[in-house]
Structures are given as structure tokens and as C-alpha cells.
Amino acid sequence: MRGRYEMLRLNLSTFICNPGRHFPFDFRSVGEQATGLFEDLSFRTALEVSGDAFCQLNTLYFKVQIRTTVEQACRRCLAPVYTTVDCYEAFTLPFRTEDHEVDLAPYVLGGITAVLNPRPLCRNDCRGLCPRCGTDLNEHPDHACPVEEEDEHQRLGDFLR
Ligand SMILES: [Zn+2]
Ligand SMILES: [Zn+2]
Asked: Counting beta carbons within 10 angstroms of the beta carbon of residue 136, is it exposed (0 to 12), middle (13 to 18) or buried (19 or more)?
């Protein structure tokens, strides 16, 4: 059983033994295996991370293509919102001589979250949920909860006055 982040770890020995030489790499999660890889991120499709890297002194130089579809919840009605991610990232990653592998997960996560809307909406005019009973106001635009609670406050207010 592989750990959460293990999928995106790259062994350094080949790079260190061949400085300046480019090596391709290709990660692909099986189905929705990538869900749980990063906290708070659900994947609708496989996560594909491919690219190449080379080593120079104690630094790795990466070019990475990230492809996946992320599922988020509409911030008003909680309906699923799908975002297709297809982004390119170039970055350098310094390492220490005692390191055996590098973890691409933070960079991949950064690339994905840069594409995502932090406040996703299923549609711009989403009406959200009734704050009292949770009815989906997109499906029931005419819904109106009885305002008993406010009536009681009103009565209490009258009483106090
Ligand atoms: Zn919505
Ligand atoms: Zn309601």
C-alpha cells in the first residue's frame, strides 16, 4: 500500500549520476486513487503528472504537465463543480546531498490550486440553499419558509418593550 504522497516522489540517483541529462517521468494515478493525495482536493479523473527533469549541482530543473479533473462543491448549494486542469509548470528544486528522493506533491498541488476557483459556483446565478431548511432554491425558486422564528422574536420584542 503506497502512502499518500509516495506517488509523486522521484528517486534522485539517476539524475545525480547523469548531471545535465534530461530524464522523462510519468505519474498516473489509477482512477480516483489520487483523491486523498492532497487534503481537501477530490479528483474526478486520474491525476496525470508528466514531464522531464535534469540535475545540475544540487538542483533539479523541472518541466511538468499536470492533467486532471477536480471536483469541488458549489459554495452556495454544494452541488459538484468540475474543473479540468491542464497546466504547465516549470520550477527548480534544490536538494541536499543526503536526500534520496524529492517530493513533487507540493508543486503539483500548487499548480492545481492556482487553476481552481477558491470560491466555486455551479453557475453564476446559483440561488443556493434555504438558510432555514436547506431546500435547494435552484430547484424550488418559489420556496419560502414560514417565518415563525422571526415572529417569535417580534413577539418577545413586544413583550420586553
Ligand atoms: Zn450552486
Ligand atoms: Zn426553507
From this structure: middle
